[in-house]
Amino acid sequence: VSGDALLLRVRSDSIIPDTTNRERTGLSAEHVHYIATLIQTDGFSPRVGTKGHDVPVLVRECPATQTGLLSLSRWRDTLENSTKGLFPPCTLHADCNCFYTSLGNGHFTQAMNLHRHNCSSIFTSKPYDASLHRDKQLAHALEEGVPALVLDGSRLAVPDRKFISLMLNSTHHMPRWNVLENGELNLEGEQFFAGDDGNDDDETEPRVSQFEALSKVLDAEELSALVRTKLGIDVDEAKSG
Q1: Chain-wide mean pLDDT for the chain?
Q2: Are 187 and 176 spatial neighbours (Cβ–Cβ below 8 Å)?
Q3: DSSP secondary structure, 72-133, as one string
Q4: What percentage of the chain has pLDDT greater than the value 70?
Q5: Cβ neighbours around 113 below 10 Å, total
Q6: Which of 8, 9, 2, 12 is closest to 116 using CA atoms?
Q7: Which pLDDT score is estimated for 115?
Q8: For residues 191-228, b (16+ Cβ closer than 10 Å) or e, as one string?
Q9: Is the dihedral of CA 209, 169, 80, 68 positive or negative?
Q10: At the N or C end, where does the chain have fewer CB atoms within 10 A?
Q11: Where are the alpha helices (DSSP H) in the chain?
């Protein structure tokens, strides 16, 4: 972990989903792979000001709290009980006592781990290419971590964590934000809604696509169905086959 103003750079392999996020439904494997696919095809977009990837909001579990250990246990159980390859492996041991849980941007974090471990896409069966020579921005993010807002787990009760995760997922229409060097929170513009592709005639204004807006508020199963619909994959056929 290294400092970046009042944000900290945290590696994705030290982050797991917080058990309170998304009403305890966990992550959507389809959405994790969808984000990993965008990184693969469009390249990694580092955070610069309010541009680039969203800022992960994390809880530092060092030493781990009961909620943190429960999050780790549930995530390891999810990986053990889910079909192999749906999610990237977790390299944190069951008795690990220093890690981070994600209250926001958990799908992005695990998408990074798909690239880290060269996992295969559930859409194409081809591995994600995390070659250091192809995407230097991605290589740097995997090695050094990405800027994240880190909260102290020892001071966050379960209701507080749940409130923060719900707030982050329900305020997608609010201005994009970053933390300035003087510690102030900077808000930039408004996140107006646009069509499904996010395009609009006036490109000077930030836009939120319908897909992005829905992806923030749906539970894991609903989000998986949304991604399959967007990609033209039949949900029932995919589940049975």
Answers
A1: 77
A2: yes
A3: HHHHHHHHHHSPTTSSPPP-S-TT--SEEEEEE-HHHHHHHHHHHTTPBPTTT-PBP---TT
A4: 66
A5: 22
A6: 12
A7: 93
A8: beebeeeeeeeeeeebbbeebeeebbebebeebbbbbb
A9: positive
A10: C
A11: 29-42, 66-81, 106-116, 136-144, 158-170, 210-217, 220-230, 235-240
Letter for the amino acid at 186? Answer: N
- Which of these, 41, 51, 53, lies nearest to 148 by C-alpha position? 53
Cβ distance 4 to 201 under 8 Å? no
pLDDT exceeds cutoff 90 at 209: no
Token digits of residue 54: 């969203």
Average pLDDT estimate for 226-235 = 66
For the four alpha carbons of 78, 38, 118 and 11, in that order, the dihedral sign comes to negative
User: Is pLDDT at 60 greater than 90 in this prediction?
Assistant: yes
Other C-beta atoms closer than 10 Å to the C-beta of 107 total 24
b/e sequence 68-83, b meaning 16+ C-beta within 10 Å: bbbbbebbbebeeeee
Backbone phi and psi for residue 144, each to the nearest 5 degrees, phi listed first:
-100, -15
pLDDT at residue 136, rounded to an integer: 87
Residue 65 has pLDDT above 60, yes or no: yes
Give the Cα separation of 143 and 46 in Å (integer). 13
CB atoms near residue 26 (< 10 Å): 19
Task: Say how far apart CA 208 and CA 141 lie, in whole Å.
Answer: 25
